[in-house]
Write a structure and sequence with these properties.
Layout (H helix, E strand, L loop, with lengths): L6 E4 L8 H9 L4 E4 L16 E4 L12 H16 L3 E4 L1 H9 L4 E3 L6 E9 L10 E8 L1 E3 L5 E6 L5 E6 L3 E4 L7 H10 L12 H28 L1
Parallel strand pairs: 1-2, 1-3, 3-4, 4-11
Antiparallel strand pairs: 5-8, 6-7, 6-9, 9-10, 10-11
């Protein structure tokens, strides 16, 4: 039996990694075609040789069209949707999907951030994909509105919109299911100034809550990816 085509995976920094999502995709038989347009990598004109498209997060904003690669990615996401390929956006990737679909991406009205582990809650439409409550890793200062054509799947406290689906094949999640303990160590060590901002948890709690909640996120992740890829 032949292996499926690779998953076209977009990251936004030289140090970015697909983390746990990459591990789970490998376990499911998928390879990763990793691209970083922010560093000059091209994006394919079509996805005939790819099973799906996966766009991760980054410190930039989905609104920052002065960055040429942001405009390029927004246009490319439209092509992915037109082609009907499965699309998954994580954090920035979800915010870009929301923008492509006509929704607003903006800061919290009280300049709040979510940095660390926070609970999300399944909506009625998302109860087949999410447990009633799941503690997930967050690192963001902007959030997205739900596009008029999309369905809210999970909600949160400070940022009410946490996951949505467009059609049957495109998903956006505000949180970071790819996170690992090594990634937490790197992220919190690289940007300690972020950990004193409103809404951020101190560094030690990131590790403590990862030990408490990481396994539940991992149990949720594999069936979620299978549902996404089967679309």
């Amino acid at each position: 039996m032949s292996s499926p085509n690779p998953v076209l995976t977009v990251v936004h920094q030289e140090t970015s990694t697909p983390g746990l999502i990459g591990t789970k995709l490998s376990e499911l038989g998928y390879s990763i075609d990793l691209r970083c347009p922010a560093l000059g990598d091209s994006l394919p004109e079509h996805l005939d040789q790819h099973s799906a498209a996966l766009v991760f997060g980054g410190p930039m904003s989905a609104n920052d069209e002065t960055e040429p690669f942001i405009r390029k990615e927004l246009d490319w996401i439209s092509q992915v949707l037109t082609a009907g390929k499965p699309y998954l956006g994580v954090c920035l990737g979800a915010q870009m999907l929301a923008r492509v679909l006509g929704a607003t991406v903006d800061h919290h009205p009280k300049a709040h951030r979510e940095i660390g582990y926070h609970p999300i809650y399944a909506t009625a439409a998302g109860q087949d994909l999410f447990p009633p409550e799941l503690y997930v890793y967050q690192w963001h200062q902007e959030g997205f509105e739900i596009p008029a054509s999309a369905t809210l799947l999970a909600k949160g406290d400070a940022f009410p919109n946490q996951a949505f689906r467009y059609g049957s094949q495109a998903y956006g999640v505000q949180f970071h299911p790819e996170i690992t303990a090594d990634m937490i160590d790197f992220w919190t060590g690289k940007a300690p100034e972020q950990l004193v901002l409103a809404g951020a948890q101190p560094r030690d709690l990131h590790f403590k809550y990862h030990q408490q909640h990481g396994a539940a996120v991992e149990r949720w992740l594999e069936p979620f990816l299978q549902t996404w890829l089967s679309a």
